[in-house]
């Protein structure tokens, strides 16, 4: 019999509270090692009707079943991989592959469906999960559906649910799971000694350079990854030697090495000590994989190399070195990889994290969800000036950690009704595009006005047309200069010069001599140029603008059009618009 930890009990209580008021599928987010199987066991134990617990691998099915039976209760297993197909018990632990093939009679009387590693649930109607859920709902339209995961964010898909517990919009796209009803940060687990502390080691040798893959904004293929590794293959022996040196020097017990591709993994194996390393890949026979994992847990060998197959459903508590040799843009996946080494074990003080990717992820960083806009970007917290919600955005900081600039567009906060779970978004926009027809604010990348439906001007079209026009000049700024000038009447004005790489420039002027001109300057210039657009600046003079130049940013392109003998700036296009 187990006693739930306080956070596990909170997860259970949150589930009960939610399903008393709602029937939309919900998610609980618990980091690796938080004891999801205990939460599942408690919910299954107290459920009034029949319970079906699904997982995608037999190891999780077996692990969850064992935890439930540790309560002194009985449950059935429906999994071909475990050679059991029981469907008579109140609680059934099944593999999705087997349950998807079950007869119609299997699906009757269930009141609760629990899905472990629920980030694998697909919206595709032909997927196994979709078919099983459809069958269950046919028998009970009001069935409660709960998902549990440590990684609620998937590359290429985004967040797996719409609304977070703290009153945050994760995505407005259609998702199977509507609400996250409980979430526990990895940092809490480590601070309270429920997990082994990770220690990120400053690597004294070189790292792979994956920047050409990860900084393009596009998904990369396995062939492209192979090509990059092939050009840098001379680094692999140095990296593996470094892993071995650290492991032997610190007398480490178990090392997991996460490689990029099968070919890369085989190359890694060539440089590890003979008889002390084994390899698991996607095509490894299940019986062989089971034997390798069992041998590793028994410490029959020290180095376990894998290619994207042991990030979930794997538990070897003695692992005290995690070596990352594969790129990932998902902070959630990065943290889940590290989680493989954070299980508690007698005599284990910490887990060394050796990162040879050069990507600079933080162990405790939040998943931002948006594409990282620049290599120097880091997660920053930006309060909304309208509702006060603290947003996690990408941003640029100085050496002291002060935010110089952020790339957030819209506040993700809002109000969550604790009774109905209805969510009202804040709607404040940090950056926006104004519709010339109705004046409504739209997302920077919007092509149609969300209010009146009018077609918004496409910045790419602007650029192409300007480049083809004889009366237009497109300048790519390299620097910006702000000068205080005085006209013939002695009235001061601001001159802004945009220089390109060849020192050519175009300029604009702004008068700030009265309230109307100050308001016009704020709308036409400050709104788009401020590095932190929510900043409230009480600008009253040209000299004050010159003094805050460090708080202003340059556009990506400046379009000037000929008016008589002079060039007049007519449009400025910023990087986020493209």
UniProtKB/TrEMBL annotation:
Residues 17-170 form the Helicase ATP-binding domain. It comes from the Bacteria. Keywords: ATP-binding, Helicase, Hydrolase, Nucleotide-binding. GO terms for molecular function: helicase activity; hydrolase activity. Its EC number is 3.6.4.-. Residues 239-386 form the Helicase C-terminal domain. SMART domains: DEXDc, HELICc. It is an enzyme of class 3 (hydrolase). This is DEAD/DEAH box helicase. The lineage of its organism: Bacteria, Pseudomonadati, Verrucomicrobiota, Opitutia, Puniceicoccales.
């Amino acid at each position: 019999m187990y006693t739930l930890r306080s956070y596990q009990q909170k997860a259970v209580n949150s589930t009960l509270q939610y399903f008393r008021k709602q029937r939309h599928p919900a998610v609980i987010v618990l980091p690796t090692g938080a004891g999801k199987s205990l939460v599942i066991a408690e919910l299954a134990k107290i459920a009034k009707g029949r319970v079906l617990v699904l997982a995608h691998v037999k190891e999780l099915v077996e692990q969850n079943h064992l935890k439930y039976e540790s309560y002194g209760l009985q449950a059935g297993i429906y999994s071909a991989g475990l050679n059991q197909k029981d469907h008579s018990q109140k609680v059934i632990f099944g593999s999705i592959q087997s349950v998807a093939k079950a007869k119609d009679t299997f699906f009757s009387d269930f009141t609760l469906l629990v899905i472990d590693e629920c980030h694998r649930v697909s919206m595709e109607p032909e997927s196994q999960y979709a078919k099983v859920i459809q069958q269950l709902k046919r028998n009970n339209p009001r069935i409660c559906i709960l998902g549990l995961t440590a990684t609620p964010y998937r590359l290429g898909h985004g967040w797996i649910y719409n609304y977070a517990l703290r009153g945050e919009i994760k995505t407005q796209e259609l998702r199977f799971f509507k609400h996250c009803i409980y979430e526990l940060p990895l940092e809490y687990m480590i601070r309270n000694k429920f997990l082994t502390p990770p220690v990120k080691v400053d690597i004294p040798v070189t790292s792979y350079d994956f920047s050409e893959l990860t900084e393009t904004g596009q998904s990369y293929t396995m062939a492209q990854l192979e090509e990059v590794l092939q050009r840098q293959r001379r680094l692999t022996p140095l990296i593996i030697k470094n892993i071995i040196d650290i492991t032997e020097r610190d007398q480490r017990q178990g090392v997991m090495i996460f490689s990029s591709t099968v070919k890369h993994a085989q190359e890694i194996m060539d440089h590890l000590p003979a008889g002390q390393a084994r390899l698991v890949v996607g095509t490894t026979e299940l019986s062989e994989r089971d034997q390798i994992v069992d041998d590793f847990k028994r410490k029959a060998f020290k180095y376990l190399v894998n290619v994207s197959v042991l990030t979930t459903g794997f538990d070897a508590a003695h692992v005290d070195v995690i070596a990352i040799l594969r790129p990932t843009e998902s902070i959630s996946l990065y943290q889940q990889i590290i989680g493989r080494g954070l299980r508690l074990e007698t005599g284990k003080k910490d887990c060394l994290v050796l990162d040879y990717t050069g990507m600079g992820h933080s162990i405790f960083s939040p998943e931002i969800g948006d594409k990282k806009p620049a290599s120097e970007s880091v997660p920053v917290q930006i309060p909304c000036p309208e509702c006060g919600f603290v947003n996690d955005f990408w941003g640029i900081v100085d050496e002291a950690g002060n935010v110089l600039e952020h790339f957030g567009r819209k506040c993700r906060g809002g109000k969550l009704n604790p009774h109905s779970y209805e969510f009202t978004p804040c709607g404040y926009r940090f950056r926006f595009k104004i519709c010339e027809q109705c004046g409504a604010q739209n997302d920077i990348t919007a092509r149609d006005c969300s209010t009146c439906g009018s077609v918004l001007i496409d910045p790419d079209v602007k650029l192409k047309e300007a480049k083809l026009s004889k009366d237009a000049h497109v300048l790519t700024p390299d620097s910006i200069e702000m000068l205080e000038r005085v006209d013939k009447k002695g009235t001061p004005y601001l001159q802004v010069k945009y220089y390109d790489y060849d020192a050519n420039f175009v300029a604009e002027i702004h008068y700030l001599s009265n309230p109307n001109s100050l308001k016009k300057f704020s709308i036409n210039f400050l709104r788009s140029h401020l590095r932190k657009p929510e900043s409230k600046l009480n600008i009253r003079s040209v000299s004050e603008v010159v003094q805050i130049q460090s708080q202003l940013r340059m556009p990506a392109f400046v379009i000037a059009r000929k008016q008589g003998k002079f060039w007049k700036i007519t449009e400025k296009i910023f990087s986020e618009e493209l």
